[in-house]
Design brief:
Layout: E1 12-18, H1 23-32, E2 36-42, E3 54-56, H2 64-70, E4 76-79, H3 89-110, E5 114-120, H4 144-163, E6 166-172, H5 184-187, H6 191-203, E7 209-214, H7 243-249, H8 258-261
Parallel strand pairs: 1-2, 1-4, 2-3, 4-5, 5-6, 6-7
């Protein structure tokens, strides 16, 4: 059996992954270790035991001093940390807004020059499912979570323009083992493609400030990533093999339901809290 070649021959001395105990952090943890000498992992949830080459650094993103220490000696950051679902604003604020400011301030102070920021498709959740949009279109957040990610995108733009910290903002669609419903036939991002995307964002020679959508090579799509081709992400997977099972489970769609009208799905209906 011919071994699968690495996605890049580049190797980093130390990468930081925040939100490493979350669903995508747990998936990327063993994958990203192949690209660095030391993988620093942070979260407020249990990170388990450190494997060889791992450094466990629990930290709350709203704790400025802790985040400052977290960035010391880091070459690049994969920022997955924060609240990842719709919640009241006062729950979103500490980690998603104060926390992302703390992260970029610490990156500036420690000379970190590349961040992969886990944004979300919910930054544009109030576009309709019969529209195709690009990262150049205005944001239309579908809730407080989407607002916080729009803030992070703007903040990262400021830190590039003023301080030269390059960021790829990835508006992640739906990254699960397989699509759960017909909406996810458009938004699905396989775990293998997630790895391809993150590694491409880390390895591209120059990204400046780039916003792109995180999706696999799905037949059905609402998002045009043409403006981000310089990142070098080429998805290899597709939701299409899952279509028969998904359509069997969900044969009818209620077109009066806002979740079926807007790209953000059920997020557009959550709240008030």
């Amino acid at each position: 059996m011919i071994p699968t070649p690495p996605l890049t021959t580049l190797r980093w001395k130390r990468l930081l992954v925040t939100g490493a105990a979350g669903a995508l952090g747990r998936e990327l943890r063993p994958r990203l270790k192949a690209y660095c000498d030391a993988l620093r992992l942070s979260d407020i949830a249990d990170l388990g035991s450190a494997a060889a080459g791992e450094e466990l650094r629990p930290a709350a993103l709203e704790d400025k001093a802790a985040v400052h220490a977290l960035l010391e000696g880091v070459e690049a950051v994969v920022h997955l940390g924060g609240v990842s679902v719709e919640k009241p604003f006062d729950v979103i604020l500490p980690a998603n807004i104060v926390g992302v400011f703390n992260l970029y301030e610490a990156a500036r102070e420690h000379g970190v020059k590349r961040v992969v920021f886990a944004s979300s498709n919910h930054v544009t959740g109030f576009y309709r499912q019969d529209e195709t949009i690009s990262p150049q279109d205005p944001v239309r957040p579908d809730g407080y979570y989407g607002l916080s990610k729009a803030f992070g995108e703007n903040l990262s733009r400021f830190y590039f323009d003023r301080y030269g910290i390059e960021t790829v903002c990835v508006r992640i669609g739906s990254s699960f083992p397989e699509p759960k419903d017909r909406r996810m036939l458009a938004t699905w991002l396989s775990f293998d493609d997630l790895e391809r995307l993150v590694v491409a964002a880390l390895a591209a020679p120059a990204v400046g400030h780039t916003v792109m959508f995180g999706m696999s090579d799905n037949r059905l799509t609402w998002w045009d990533n043409t403006s981000a081709r310089h990142v070098g992400y080429r998805p290899q997977d597709s939701s299409e093999p899952f279509r028969p099972a998904v359509e069997a489970r969900q044969q009818r769609i209620d077109l009066s339901d806002p979740a079926a009208i807007f790209q953000g799905g059920g997020f557009v209906k959550q709240g008030p809290f």
